[in-house]
Amino acid sequence: MSHPRKQHSANVDLRMTIDGRVFSLTQVGPNHAILEQATSIPSDSSALIDVVIDDKTLTREVVLYDGASDKSRRVEFF
Q1: pTM (2 decimals)?
Q2: Extents of the domains making up the chain
């Protein structure tokens, strides 16, 4: 006897907030993130990274020690 499988695709939202500005992310790793659009962010900026999966939010406080350049979408943090 087989049981029907429920198909479920999680709703995922990745974002970073700095001084009230919200930036969409395409990827988050343990010490980096990929911005949806390259933008200039000053060094040593404090940020909140939110990973939202099906309305459950995990927030992480980070520091972008090198900031971000409008020439690259990758940001490094600790």
Answers
A1: 0.85
A2: 12-76
